[in-house]
Amino acid sequence: MPETEVKEEQACGGNCDSCAVNSCDASEQKPGETAEAYANRQLLTKRMLGIKHKIVVLSGKGGVGKSTIAVNLAISLSLAGKKVGLLDVDIHGPSIPTMLHLEGARADSDGENILPLKMGGLKVMSVGFLLENRDSAIIWRGPMKMGVIEQLLRDVKWGDLDYLIIDSPPGTGDEPLSVVQLIGDLDGAVMVTTPQAVAAADVRKSLDFCRQLKLKVLGIVENMSGFVCPDCGKETEIFSGNNGELMANEAGVPFLGKIPIDPAVGASCDSGAPFVYHYSKTETAKRFENVINKILQIEEEK
């Protein structure tokens, strides 16, 4: 048996019937719950116990670079020596396969588990890896979405991880709600916004989403914050406003930093070359590193 599976078994005990941890949500069958649903919930709980930290990346609206932040967050943590998984639950627009140059890749199985794709020390799973045709539209209602997300959390063989970064679609709909409800013990959320007031206004809704679900906000990242000239290093504001930092101060949550506009970021996403790995010496990469260090500090303080 692989080492990661042994650690997962030891952490959980491997048998819910003989487990002494009464506080575990999977210790008892819920009223009206079928035996199959109960067994699935036990498996999901056991799977998540092998993962130390679970972080969901949220945004109030699309187009703010949320997936870019999620990918570079996961890569940065991996480069810092952490065992990391990246899960893309954006059912209608999974972009992680493109950003990691994994378009057309298909998830494999060992007969019992879905096997995540591996990129060095990073394990990756996306709804896009389950599609026959990447150009096919997914027309699903809420219950089907939740079922697929549950399967990705329950049946993917993540093994022993330090971090699972979950890239959720924008807004406060079915996908982020399913992630929060299914995992239960998320460490928190990283919010992504841009400097403009219109983006920050939607972040308020995401902050309220976290408040209502009692999900900790680890911090806010202001993306596309100015432009740093690659030649002279001078930073110029492109969008007016400083709303990411103002929003963090207003809500009493950490401000993780500003990521400037950098043409290399877009080129990296299109080519599938992770930015923080291939452009580690740039000012933008240093800003990403500062964000990662703040997240690591937050986790060390827990």
What does this structure look like?
The protein has helices at about 5-10, 35-50, 65-80, 95-100, 140-155, 175-185, 195-210, 245-250, 265-270, 275-280, 285-300, and strands at about 50-60, 85-90, 110, 115, 115-120, 120-125, 160-165, 190-195, 215-230, 235, 255-260. With about 300 residues, it is of the alpha/beta class. It folds into two domains: about 1-50, no CATH class; about 50-300, P-loop containing nucleotide triphosphate hydrolases (Rossmann fold). Strands 1, 2, 5, 6, 7, 8, 9, 10 and 11 form a nine-stranded mixed β-sheet that branches. A two-stranded antiparallel ribbon has the order 3-4. The radius of gyration is 19 Å and the shape is globular. Residues about 1-10 have low confidence and may be disordered.
Q: How is the biggest beta sheet arranged?
A: 9 strands, mixed
CATH topology group of the largest domain? Rossmann fold
DSSP helical segment count: 11
Whole-number average pLDDT?
Answer: 82
Q: In angstroms, what separates the terminal alpha carbons? A: 32 Å
Helix content: 40-55%
Order of helices and strands: HHEHEHEEEEHEHEHEEHEHHH
CATH homologous superfamily label of the largest domain: P-loop containing nucleotide triphosphate hydrolases
Number of strands: 11
Structural class determined from secondary elements: alpha/beta
- In total, the number of domains comes to 2
CATH class of the largest domain: Alpha Beta
**Strand-residue proportion:** 15-25%
Poorly predicted runs are: 1-11
Radius of gyration: 19 Å
- Do you know the CATH architecture of the largest domain? 3-Layer(aba) Sandwich
What is the general shape?
A: globular
